[in-house]
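[job 4471] stage=fold_predict status=RUNNING
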Amino acid sequence: MASVEFQNISKTFGAFVAVPDISFQIADGEFICLLGPSGCGKTTSLRMIAGLETPTSGRVMIGGRDVTYLHPKDRGISMVFQDYALYPHMNIADNIAYPLKVRGEQETKRHARAKEVADVLKIGDLMKRLPSQISGGQQQRTSLARALVYPSEVYLFDEPLSNLDAKLRLEARGFLNHLQRDMGMTAVYVTHDQAEAMALATRIAVMDKGRIVQFAPPIEIYRRPATTFVANFVGNPPMNLVPVEASIGDGALHLRADGLKLAPIALTDAIAKAAKSARMTLGVRPEHLRIAAAGDLNVVSGELFANENMGPESLVTLERGDNGRVTARIFTDDEIKVGTSVHLAFDARHITLFDDSSARIPAADER
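[job 4471] inference complete, writing structure tokens
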């Protein structure tokens, strides 16, 4: 396996800037997810690693080698595509063994290797079938087997699970997680599905408009999103974001908004600096909200907009007039009717504050 590095990479298509100027490093054995909405530059970045796109400027390094202008076959990479890209006229054995065929491997050896990889992926009994004769999940594993049949330095995945139904996607996700641990592969995985990224990655690069907004382990991105964009993109449901007016008095921060009651917050240098603009955003994850009880200090109120029963939990969404909506993940058997007034409480230890530039304000326990 090998490391991957982007050194001041940019990519333009005519006047359109797809990737403005990004640099990052992926260590040997890391499983990295490029996560973001459509058009954010994640697939373009992956294609530049693969050699399918040439950077407008900057250098792509794999294993310490400058591969910026090398042909894909000379980069030591394997790639799994979104549409699997299987040859319809070839059986599964020949599809898997094709990378060995183009490298001149003898038929007996390449079929033996293909069977070995297929058995690991539990499709060894399908070798004589055509792609049209197997399921979508089995086609996905065939595509993966083809990528693994020839040892590579880096494995690239371009939304490989997006064509699967929910059950197969969950199964394939667990399988990829197990495979990466066993192989210790260096992998770059493109997805717009934050659940896939959270489940698979050792680190996630959240992208927006061609730039990496945050590059960190999944739990850090979830608990400490760098911006309101990350907070709103990662999480299902996403973090609740409430615009508030900020002021300082009696040595504490005071936040105000319609339908919001908040206890004063202890000042830090970072909070005091951000409060000068008088505008902040308060962030609270849905799981940190609950039905308020008498005497609760931190409460958000509104009219019930929706109550979605998810089995063991309910997603309760309240509407705050022109001030947006707030969603809570609660565990209760009580029926709450749409249109009634609802009060949700939260623990101040679980709030996240963002300044007027949408950047997260460091918590008191951060250096």
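[job 4471] summary: The domain at 4-232 is CATH 3.40.50.300 (Rossmann fold).
[job 4471] exit 0
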